[in-house]
Amino acid sequence: MTTYRIPLTSVPQALGVQLAGTEYRLTVRWNDAFEGGWTLDIDLPDNAGSVLRGIPLVTGADLLGPYAHLGLGGGLVVWCDDHDDPPTMDNLGEGVDLLFVVSEDEA
Questions:
Q1: Position 107 in a domain
Q2: How far apart, in whole angstroms, are the C-alpha atoms of residue 19 and residue 51?
């Protein structure tokens, strides 16, 4: 298994990344609402289309698991250094990381 850290900070942001050899644009937003939190959008670059929208950044699950049929080449996991709570507005990228995990079967 190979793991890649996607560099995030505790501010809403958009960045280009390569996942399993394909370029994507990730957008992370904070939803300041009851039971809100960070969400992730995955788009093709250059406004070529949307892949996934509004994925909640939660710990303890492969965020791409329900979308395996899309063939994105791996899984996304939110990793927290010291607990399983979802990331807060202030700790994303500082003790809470977004990881892209590629299994040996997919590598």
A1: no
A2: 13
Entry pTM = 0.89
Q: Is residue 73 part of a domain?
A: yes
The 10 Å CB-count burial string (b at 16+, else e) for 46-55 is: eeeeebbeeb
Per the DSSP assignment, residues forming a β-bridge with 97 are 79
Structural domain that includes position 46: 2-102
Give the C-alpha separation, 105 to 68, whole Å: 14
CA–CA separation, 49 and 10 (whole Å)? 26
**Considering its fold, how many domains does the chain have in total?**
1
Q: Give per-residue pLDDT as tens, 70-84.
A: 999 999 999 988 777
Question: 88, 55, 92, 70: which is closest to 19 by C-alpha?
Answer: 70
Q: Are 30 and 36 in contact (CB under 8 A)?
A: yes
